[in-house]
Structures are given as C-alpha cells and as structure tokens.
Specification:
The structure is a single chain. It contains 20 helices and 20 strands. It has 633 residues and is of the alpha+beta class. The protein has 2 domains: 268 residues, Chloramphenicol Acetyltransferase, CATH 3.30.559.10; 298 residues, Choline/Carnitine o-acyltransferase, domain 2 (Chloramphenicol Acetyltransferase). It has an 8-stranded mixed sheet, sandwiched between helices. It has a 6-stranded mixed sheet with strand order 14-20-19-17-15-16. α7 packs across α12, α16 runs antiparallel to α17 and α17 crosses α20. The longest helix is centred in the first third of the chain and has 23 residues. The protein is globular, with a radius of gyration of 25 Å. The chain starts with 8 loop residues before the first strand and ends in a 6-residue tail after the last helix. The structure holds coenzyme A. The site of coenzyme A (COA) has 26 residues, from α12, α15, β15, α17 and β17.
C-alpha cells in the first residue's frame, strides 16, 4: 500500500503552530469501525466570541473600503454588539445550535455554498486539475493509461473500504477524514430550488461499476471480477477497447451537456428526461457509478507554451459543444479525463469535498500508474460493458440545444492562463524564514495593487478539517499590513529597509490569520452563521448584513486557494464575481504552478497581465530581500 504524504504541521511547546515539512501520516493500521472512532475523537467547530469577530471584521474592512463607509459600518457593528442586543441574541442561538449538532456550519455551508447556488457547476463551481502531459498520442496509449488510472483509483478505494487510509495531521492535530468517504460513488442531482447529493458508497449494494464516456456515449463498466477482486490493467484494457470500438462515431446527442446548464434549467430538463424509464435507469447508473472516466477526442494543437492553459479549459469545461463538453456528466463528483492526445486531468463537483483530498487521491493514482504491472490476469471472459441508452424526445433535444448554446457562451467568456513560475518555489521564502503560502499571497496583493492601485477583497481557503465535518473558512489576504507593504513598494520615497520590515510584517500577519482560521476563529463563517441564524429567528436581517461594506467584503475580486500536491499538477477554477480573478497554485520546492482565470466579458480583468504582475511581484520581493542584508537576520 502506498503511503500518502499529506499536509501536516507540528505544534511547538509554546503552543504556537510551527509549520513543518510534509510529514508521513501516522499509519493507524485501522480495523473496521476505526474511522468512526477517529471521527468521534475530533473536536467540534467552535463558535468564536462575538466581540472578537466584530473587531476582526472592522480590521478586515480597513484596506478595502473607504473611510466614510467604514465609519458607518463601525456604528452598525457597535449597535449590533450592544449588551442584550440583536448580536448577543443571535450568538446565543448559534451557540445553542452548536451544542446540538455535530458541526453547526457544515449543513448550512453545503446548502448555501453549493446546493442552493443556481449558476452552472461548470466554470462557476467545479474545479479542474491539469496533470502533466502523457507520452502518447493514439488510442492504444489512451486505453492503456486509462486502464492504469482506473486500477489506481480502485487501489485507493480499497484503502477507503478497509478504513486503512492514513489519517492526516495539521498543526499537530488529526484531521477529519469524512471528505474521503464522500467522493466516490457520489453524484449531485439537480433540483429546484435546491440540488441534492447522493452517495451510494454506504448503500446495501454499493456499486461495482464505473462510467466510461467516449464520443458522448455513456457506458457502464463493471470493474470487479465475480470473486470481488478488481479487474487488472490488462482486463481493463480489453474492456475499454470494447467500449471504444462500439462508439467510434460521435453521431449521438450529447446528453451529458445538459449537466452544464443553469441549475434551474437543468432541474426542469432532468424531470422531463427521467420520465422515460430507460433514461431514468441510464441516469441512475451514472449517478451510482464509483467515478467516471472521460475518454476525450484530441483538442486543437497548440504551442508548448499554451498547452497547460488549453488543458486547463479542457478540464474546466471540455472546450464547448464542438469538442469535449458533451463527453462529461458534470454532476458526477469525480471525473478523470484522458485525451487521445495525451492530455490528462480531472474535474470534480465541489459539493462533497475540497481540493486537498481530491489531490491526495490523484497523487496516489499518479504514483500507481508509474508502477510496473504485476497483477495476474484471470483467463475468464468478461461481459461486454453495457451501453447506456437514452430516448431523446423533441423536448429533450431542444434542452440539449439550449445547453449547447449556453456552454459555448461560457467557453468564449472564460480565459485561463496556467503559468509555471520557474525562478523559485517554497525554497526561497523558507530561506528567509517566511511561510511560502503567506509570501505568495502577499505577492498576489502586490500584483493586484500594481495593476489597479487599490487593494481588493481577497479570499483564500483555509481548512477547518481539524474539526469534525469541517470544511473551510476564509483567510482575508488583504490586510492592513499587506496594504502598508504594497503601498510602500509603489512609493519611490521609501527605503528598502523599511519595505523589508513591512514585507516581513505582512507575511507574519498572513500566517497569523491562517493559524487563527484553521483553529476556527476566523470571522467569515461566524458572520455567515449569525446571518443565517437571523434568517431563521428574526423578521428582518440586521443592518450590518445589508450594509455596503458587507457586500464589498463579500465581493471577492481575488478568489484564491493553495492546493499542494506531490504531482507536478495545478488545480484551476473560475472567478467568483464577474470582475474578478480565480487564482489557484501548487507551490513545489523549486517552482510554483499557477492557474489564473478571468472572464473575457469584463473589460477590467486580464489574466496575462495579472500573471505577469504576479511573476514580477514574486521576483521583486525576492530581490528586495536579497538586496537588503538585514532581511536574512
Ligand atoms: N520558515 C521556514 N519554513 C516555513 C515557515 C517559516 N516561517 N513557515 C512555513 N514554512 C514551511 C512549512 O514547514 C512547510 O514546509 P514543507 O514544504 O516542507 O511542508 C511549507 O513551508 C508550507 O507552509 P506554508 O506555506 O505556511 O503553508 P501551509 O502548508 O501551512 O498551508 C494553507 C497554508 C492555508 C494553504 C493551509 O493551512 C490550508 O488551510 N489548506 C487547505 C486549503 C484548501 O482547503 N483549499 C481548498 C481548495 S478547493
């Protein structure tokens, strides 16, 4: 069994979080039931003190709102937290909720962040992962790699099924492993006004098949032998070959494209689609499958420099109705994509999990595909994989046409630039005793400031998995300290020594925010909880949530995330506001992979410019530190 390297940190004697290198996860040699025992041992997500959140909220607003708005908000916040006032009342209700539930936030978060969200999952919610290009450019290579990859996922699944998945640690604390149990055999289902997620892993008859899509046609491929052993790579090759040979033409309606539509339109089309018994059975087979493999047609050839950016859009949306967008079931939690041209990656539906567990699974699979194959192939004939049929009525056809038009509009609107920043990686910030993540985030602030001469509301995901069923909170990277630093960098009157001091302060402040966030003391989910509690308890939402500053704070012009991996890959996602950027990065030791996205329809954003500004910012910060001898002290 391959041991996975995970995000880990240790705690110093003083109780300070001491960032540490990737430490081997502790092998628990779990026995069945140990997963639940581990989960039970995790602490509950705390409700932070009201005054602390109010103070932190005002501090977070300082770099991003004007003085007048800030003064107004200060008054609202003061009123909100008056003794016996509305804030205290909501806080008490929230604490009561927290005492009753395993996690006061997780259900709410699943609904408000994902299932109630009506925009298409494509571009607006589902992240993609670009893996290194593979060395083949034909069907045989595609089949062989797909077979190895399927075997790798099944190997990972064995760890999940046997509860032998090594537990992960962060800051010396064991992490919630629940998300690993949510990503396989799982699927989102459209509904209005709210979607749902089904998970078949724990059903009485868990699935033994995966979905394979080729030329817009869906197949059900059983991946276990009758004795319960997983199919070997050779067996999988035989089965995949049968699928490819029976779907050589893409003459059929791209039914999967329906899943890329606005959620209300898709929910309506879905109700209509599954009225037909055959369609219903086919859809259920996809939903129930362990995961999906999309065998894509080759994309137009581009230069080596452009390759990763093109691969990123192929992962995010498939390239449009002419290309591979119909070769997906976007509601499926996990879809591996393998192109005939050697492109490889993943798209995943975000509701059940964050990026890190997905990337840990990918790291395992990538390692697995590199191993020499040793499994002996049983000489039993295997049943032909079942093609999933769909009866297309004129109404369904018209829904497909509408979905095609919509995805083509999205495809034209999304710009993604993947860059490999090769000058340095985590090594340089570490040599200056700085947190690499904080260094990159401060560089992003500098890049944005250089382009726009202002700071913007910035989101970075922080893991809440120290707590049972924890998901994420927000690290607000635009801080008073980062603002002081970026302004100084733009001020010719400032001396380098002062700039270095401000840089060190900004990096430290970011790291301190991170530590506070992963310990459940950040402000954003708490404010959200108070607001949702108000919706439940009060006739009207308090003024602080109707305030201009609140909407500005939640309008993330920079939506960012670090998703570290052992594999030289990068995760990518779309912006969360029309005039914003999505920035995801994988910092490796000697280089950093970045994916920057923006919408072409916004005249104010430009991915190439931000990517260049980011490279310049990283280099300027390194040069500043190197040229200022005191920085090494
Ligand atoms: N001096 C020297 N080295 C330092 C250092 C310092 N002051 N601070 C940190 N480091 C080292 C660490 O030891 C670690 O070493 P490693 O590369 O050997 O492992 C490395 O630098 C990375 O630490 P840092 O850059 O501080 O980041 P992190 O790994 O703690 O990650 C977050 C920070 C916010 C990304 C992480 O806490 C988190 O929450 N991740 C979840 C993100 C997520 O859920 N995303 C969802 C996307 S869908």
């Amino acid at each position: 069994m391959t041991m996975l390297g995970f995000l880990t940190r240790t705690v110093t004697k003083a109780g300070m979080v001491k960032p540490s290198c990737l430490v081997k996860p502790v092998s628990l040699n779990w026995i069945p039931g140990r997963y639940l025992a581990h989960q039970e041992s995790l602490p509950k997500l705390p409700v932070p003190p009201l005054n602390q959140t109010c103070d932190r909220y005002l501090a977070a607003l300082e770099p991003i709102v004007g003085a007048e708005d800030l003064n107004h908000t200060r008054q609202l916040v003061e009123e909100f937290q008056l003794p016996g006032g509305v804030g205290e009342r909501l806080q008490k209700s929230l604490e009561h909720r927290a005492s009753k539930l395993e996690n006061w936030l997780s259900d709410w978060w699943l609904k408000v962040a994902y299932l109630d969200y009506r925009m298409p999952v494509v571009v607006h919610s589902s992240p993609g992962v670009v893996l290194p290009r593979l060395e083949f450019s034909d069907r045989q290579g595609q089949i062989r790699h797909a077979a190895k990859l399927i075997a790798g996922v099944l190997d990972f699944k064995t760890m999940i099924d046997h509860e032998t998945l090594p537990v992960e640690y962060l800051g010396g604390k064991a992490l919630c492993m629940n998300q690993y149990y949510r990503v396989l055999s799982s699927c989102r289902i459209p509904g209005a006004p709210r979607d749902s997620v089904v998970n078949h892993a724990l059903s009485k008859t868990p699935p033994t098949h995966i979905t394979v899509v080729h030329n817009f046609q869906f197949f059900m491929l059983d991946v276990y032998n009758s004795d319960g052993s997983p199919l070997t790579v050779d067996q999988l090759c035989v089965q995949l070959e049968k699928i490819l040979n029976s779907s050589l033409q893409n003459s059929e309606e791209p039914i999967g494209i329906l899943t890329s539509n606005h959620r209300n339109s898709w929910a309506k089309a879905y109700t209509n689609l599954i009225k037909d018994k055959t369609n219903k059975e086919s859809v259920q087979a996809i939903q129930k499958s362990i995961f999906a493999v999309c065998l894509d047609a080759p994309m137009p050839q581009v230069s080596d420099e452009m390759y990763r950016s093109q691969a990123a859009v192929q992962m995010l949306h498939g390239g449009g109705s002419r290309w591979n967008s119909g070769n997906r079931w976007f509601d499926k939690t996990l879809q591996f994509i393998i192109g005939e041209d050697g492109t490889c990656g993943v798209i995943y539906e975000h509701a059940p999990a964050e990026g890190p567990p997905i990337v840990a699974l990918i790291d395992h699979v990538v390692e697995y595909t590199k191993k020499t194959e040793t499994g002996r192939t049983p000489m039993v004939p295997l049943p032909t994989p079942q093609k999933l049929s769909f009866n297309i009525t004129p109404e369904i056809k018209s829904d497909i046409e509408e979905a095609k038009q919509n995805i083509n509009t999205m495809v034209h609107d999304l710009d993604v630039k993947v860059i490999v920043f090769s000058h340095f990686g985590k090594n340089v910030p570490k040599s200056f005793k700085m947190s690499p993540d904080a260094f990159i985030q401060v560089a992003l602030q500098l890049a944005y400031y250089k382009m726009y001469k202002r700071c913007c509301s910035t989101y970075e995901s922080a893991s809440l998995r120290m707590f049972k069923l924890g998901r994420t909170d927000t690290i607000r990277s635009a801080s008073i300290d980062s603002a002081n630093f970026v302004r100084a960098m733009d001020d010719p009157a400032k001396q380098n020594l002062e700039k270095v001091t401000l840089l060190q302060k900004a990096v430290k402040a970011h790291r301190a925010y991170t530590d506070m966030a992963i310990r459940g003391q950040a402000l954003d989910r708490h404010l959200l909880g108070l607001k949702l509690q108000a919706v439940e308890d009060l006739p009207a939402v308090p003024d602080i949530f109707m305030d201009k500053s609140y909407s500005k704070a939640n309008h993330y012009n920079l939506s960012t995330s670090q998703v570290p991996a052992k594999t030289d890959c990068v995760m990518c996602f779309g912006p969360v506001v029309p005039d914003g950027y999505g920035v995801c990065y994988n910092p490796m030791e000697g280089h950093i992979n970045f994916a920057v996205s923006a919408f072409n329809s916004c005249a104010d954003t430009n991915t190439s410019q931000l990517a260049h500004a980011l490279e310049d910012a990283l280099l300027d910060m390194k040069n500043l530190l190197e040229q200022t001898p005191k920085a090494k002290l």
